[in-house]
Every structure is written in structure tokens, then in C-alpha cells.
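Q: I'm writing a short explainer about NAD(P)-dependent dehydrogenase (Short-subunit alcohol dehydrogenase family) for a general audience and would like to include a description of its predicted shape. Could you first generate the structure from this sequence?
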Amino acid sequence: MDLGLRDKVAVITGGSIGIGLAVAKGFAAEGAHVVIAARDADRLTAAREEILAAHAVQVVAVDCDVATALGCDRLLAATEEAFGGADILLNNAGTGSNETILDAPDDKWQFYWDLHVMAAVRLARGLVPSMKRRGGGVILNNASICAAQPLWYEPIYNVTKAALIMASKTMATEFIPHNIRVNAINPGFVLTPDWIKTATQLTAETGGDWKGYIDNLARENAPIGRFASPEEIADFFVFLCSDRASYSVGSTYFVDGGMLKTI
Ligand code: NDP
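A: Of course. Here's the predicted structure. Afterward I'll give you a sentence or two in plain language.
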């Protein structure tokens, strides 16, 4: 299936590793140029080189913190300079949390609000004008199953990811008259280096069987009985950003191996 993404420009936050990198590679495989953003410059450079080695596309790497207005501006300026704007924006940068509502201070709430919600708002505000000039575009927000089915240990993550879904829905209504489609994806368990690190830490004092921990977690929570690989969910992201998904507007799609317990 030709997805019609050749020579499109896709901006991917959190594009240096995990889901973001897998999606960036997916875009590149379809002939789209990519702008990848993350804070760690070395990891970003390695990701850029990996994509360039495999695909004949342009790859721009921007080290910036998208949880700040300054960081978003930096990403927008680099995108403008390299490509004069973008056709696709994937708001993917994010991370889990760990707290209770009674103990978490205001600044922790603010940090996650800025990372999961304001980054999407600021980058949309910055890129929509160029999408309009190009005749349309796509914004995809990577939320989480936790936006709908919370995990008890991360209330701030649950709340800010749920807010991202509503931001997505309202953006969709506002932008579709300009042929800009906005959707969200709620992944379930995806085996990224971040999860391996967490599982390694959690099993450090009991033998270090991080893989056993991951397998048990999947068996207990997801009917499919395993984590997804970043690559196997990346295809879904790439498809939703293509014209093949032209009637998908303002929706939230679960890709979770059956983990969601409601219909
Ligand atoms: P990873 O930790 O593997 O990657 C996160 C990426 O985001 C990295 O590139 C990281 O780079 C970047 N990033 C984090 N904070 C910032 C910031 N402030 N500014 C710029 N870049 C930043 O995460 P995953 O691939 O696992 O997750 C990606 C997204 O998917 C997240 O939003 C996550 O909530 C969501 N998700 C993940 C699931 C999973 O099971 N893995 C399940 C459901 C949703 P750097 O640290 O260098 O900035």
C-alpha cells in the first residue's frame, strides 16, 4: 500500500529512542523527511545516523526540551529553517510518573502539564500555519492507555495524558476546516528501553530477572500476554499520518493487546 508520504516532512518529539524513533524510521522508510527532537544530544545524533544509514531522506536532529516554551521555539525555528514548515507533527515526548496525589507538589504537576499538554499546544500553534500553507497536515498525539484506564502509582501521568486526549479532540475540531487532521493513540505496554530500565531497577534486589517481571506484568494485564515492540505499533502511527487515513479525525485509537477493560 503506497501511503503517499514521500517527501513529506514529519516532526517527531522524543524521536531519539523507543516509540518515537521507531515511528521516525517508519516515516523515513516511506520516503518522508524527519525532524527528531529530544534533550540528550548524543543519543539524538546516534538516532539520526541510524536513520540516515538506512534511508535516503533528510534527517534533522534538534536537541531541545519540549516541556519549555523556549525548547519548542527552538524546534520550530529549526524546522522552519530546514524545510519551511512541516506536514506532520507527532507529539510523542513523555514519561511515566510515580507519586500519590497527597504527596506530589505543585511543580511536579506543572512539569507534566508542560511536557504532555503544553508541548502539543505550543508545537501545534507553531506548525499549523505552515500546514495551512501546504494545503493541510496531520497532528498525532501519543497519549497512553492510562488516559482512560489509570495505573494507581502515577496519577499525574494519568491526568495529563487524559488532558492530552481532550486537547487532541478540540484541536481536531478547530483545525479540520484547514484540512489538518488531529488524532490520538493510546498504546498499552510497549517494550522500550525505559521499561527495561524500570524493570531492572524493580528487580535489582530480587535476582534481577527484569524479563520475568515484564512477562508477568504483560500476562496479568494484557490478554495478548506480551509487550508490543516499538516497531509493531509504529506502523499504526505512520498509517494514521497518511492520506490512507483521510477520514480519521478527532479520534483516539487504542493499540494495547486487549488491555483496555471496557468497550
Ligand atoms: P522513552 O523513554 O523510550 O523515550 C522518550 C523520548 O522522549 C526520548 O527520545 C526522550 O529523549 C524524549 N523526551 C522526554 N522528555 C523530553 C523533553 N522534555 N523534551 C524533549 N524530549 C523529551 O519512551 P517511550 O518510547 O516508551 O514513550 C514514548 C511516548 O509513548 C511517551 O509519551 C509515553 O508516555 C507514551 N507511552 C509509552 C508506553 C510504553 O509502554 N512504552 C505506553 C503508553 C504510552 P530525552 O530523554 O533525551 O529528552
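A: For your explainer, you could say: Residues 26 and 73 are 26 Å apart (CA to CA).
Q: Perfect, that's easy to follow.
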